[in-house]
Specification:
Largest sheet: none
Number of strands: 0
Family: Belongs to the binding-protein-dependent transport system permease family.
Shape: globular
Helix content: over 70%
Number of helices: 14
Structural class: mainly alpha
Number of domains: 1
CATH superfamily: MetI-like
Protein name: Multiple sugar transport system permease protein
Membrane topology: Multi-pass membrane protein
Strand content: under 5%
Subcellular location: Cell membrane
Radius of gyration: 23 Å
Domain ABC transmembrane type-1: 61-260
CATH architecture: Orthogonal Bundle
CATH class: Mainly Alpha
Order of helices and strands: HHHHHHHHHHHHHH
CATH topology: MetI-like fold
Distance between the termini: 31 Å
Length: 275
């Protein structure tokens, strides 16, 4: 296969991948009656004005930021400590614990939704208010995938570094903070990206536990908007309004992936080599 053919195929694949995003953005700024046009005759930003002026979309965006950043922060702390323990410490039941963590990946979240909903309801977190943040964050706070990522990266560090630190009298927490974490920054970036996607795009759990529109995350607000709840939105430009809100939801994930893609690809390759 010649280089020209190879690059042509890659370019076509890239265009096919990017087309839905282009169509979504163009539809969001197309005037009423021009929905579906690939090149609109004029641009109309009334749908963007509507979602910020008439809908609590700013609050929804803030809720998603608190929800997602809370999950990411807790996941990075728990994931790095647990991954370090599984990779560098020897204790009874370590392999069994890792097997249990792997097993949790096979459990669908929907299987746990009923008991989790009962728990957060009993604790009062399902009532409208700041407790909704706890109801959203609590079930997502431990991410098995992040633990596995940290474990694999910590396993790849030279044993000599840890032996030297032990000889200097350093404890495990100091070694983790001073040696392991600075050498595994790509692991934190990869874990951040993977963890971010889950709560940011989560719809079902947010819909279940958050009933007030002003406390709902952006993904739930977009889902409700897409269900036809605001069919006369934006001067009757329903699809323009839906795609405007969808664009707002999609942009942060796309930006993060573009920023972290080289670390993500390198991490996947390194994990595959290490086994």
């Amino acid at each position: 296969m010649t280089r020209i053919v190879r690059y042509t195929i890659l370019a076509l694949g890239g265009l096919i991948f990017l087309f839905p995003f282009y169509f979504m953005i163009i539809t969001s700024v197309s005037p009423p009656g021009s929905t579906g046009s690939l090149v609109p005759a004029s641009l109309d930003f009334s749908t963007w004005t509507f979602i910020f002026a008439e809908l609590p979309i700013t609050w929804n965006l803030l809720n998603s930021a608190v929800y997602t950043l809370g999950v990411v922060a807790i996941t990075l702390v728990i994931g790095s400590i647990t991954g370090y323990a599984l990779a560098r410490l020897s204790f009874r039941g370590r392999d069994t614990l890792f097997a249990v963590i792997l097993f949790t990946l096979a459990l669908p979240f929907q299987l746990l939704m009923v008991p989790l909903f009962i728990m957060v309801s009993e604790w009062g977190w399902a009532r409208p208010g700041p407790g909704n943040y706890l109801a959203l964050i609590f079930p997502m706070a431990v991410n098995a995938t992040a633990i596995i990522i940290f474990r694999q990266f910590f396993r790849g560090l030279p044993q000599e570094l840890f032996d030297a630190a032990y000889l200097d009298g350093a404890g495990n927490l100091r070694i983790l903070w001073k040696i392991a974490i600075p050498l595994t920054k790509p692991a934190f970036l990869i874990a951040t990206l993977i963890t971010f996607i889950g709560p940011w795009n989560d719809f079902l759990w947010g819909l279940l536990v958050v009933r007030d529109a002003y406390w709902q995350p952006l993904s739930v607000a977009v889902g409700i908007l897409g269900s036809g709840a605001h069919a006369t939105a934006g001067g009757g430009n329903y699809w323009g309004t839906v795609t405007a809100a969808s664009t707002l939801l999609a942009v942060p994930v796309i930006v993060l992936f573009i920023a972290f893609q080289r670390y993500f690809v390198r991490g996947v390759i390194e994990d595959g080599i290490k086994g």
